[in-house]
Amino acid sequence: MPGALKAASNATLGFLGLNTQESGVTLESGYAKKAINCIIDKYGRLGSRRGWQMLTTNNGDLDNDEYIESIYEFRDIGGDSKVLSAGGGKLFSGTTTLTRELIYGADSGGPVALTTQPTFTGNRWQFTALQEGAGAAAESYAFAAQGGNSMLVYREGAHSGPYVFQQIGTYGTAPIGVGFFDPDCVHSAFGRVWAGRVTENKTTIFYSGLLD
């Protein structure tokens, strides 16, 4: 005969993970017989995968068959955040609206966008960021590297005003003995910017001065 009804908690369903070996009749509620679109969280438990939400349908200067292929959140020392991205041989900033970022020339009363923009090979830019200097005089910089292209720095033009992209060598000094500084990877750590796999010297790692 049926027994009395008992309350059962479902707070830990699937907590013990996926079990396809035992019969579902005898399986504890802590196991799952099927797990679709799940993740394992930092505690080793099954959890639902977070979904995606469309951020924007604004393609900016991208053609219909071009897509964003690399993306980076640049956060300056003031705590302001800006998303940098690349696609279709162009660089962009922004999220809901993509604003094309041009490459600027050397500072001369404020940098001016190059009349002829460089042609980029690929869109797999690797980004990093580091501040220059310390205290109230510190400034924020982002860097972008991709083999076959001049390394870029993203900074406040003429140390004031809006941020702009400039090529290393136009702003800043490329390493001595390297004619075309085109590292394929870049990273910031220990107060320095590190770059490697330059076409002319693929076995050397280059690094900047401390906070410089």
Radius of gyration: 25 Å
- Largest sheet descriptor: 5 strands, mixed
Structural class from helices and strands?
mainly beta
Number of helices: 0
Q: What percent of residues adopt helix (DSSP H or I)?
A: under 10%
Can you give keywords for this protein?
212 residues, elongated, 5-stranded mixed beta sheet, 0% helix
Helices and strands, with pairings:
Layout (H helix, E strand, L loop, with lengths): L16 E2 L12 E2 L5 E3 L5 E3 L21 E6 L5 E7 L2 E4 L5 E3 L1 E2 L21 E7 L6 E7 L6 E5 L6 E5 L17 E5 L2 E7 L2 E7 L5
In short:
With 212 residues, this protein is mainly beta. Helix content is 0%, strand content 35%. The protein is elongated, with a radius of gyration of 25 Å.
Q: How would you describe this structure to a colleague?
A:
This protein is mainly beta. It has no helices and 16 strands. The protein has two domains: 9-51, no CATH class; 70-207, no CATH class. It has strands spanning 17-18, 31-32, 38-40, 46-48, 70-75, 81-87, 90-93, 99-101, 103-104, 126-132, 139-145, 152-156, 163-167, 185-189, 192-198, 201-207. A five-stranded mixed sheet has the order 9-13-12-11-10, with no helix packed on it. Strands 5-6-7-8 form a four-stranded antiparallel sheet, with no helix packed on it. It starts with 16 loop residues before the first strand and ends in a 5-residue tail after the last strand.
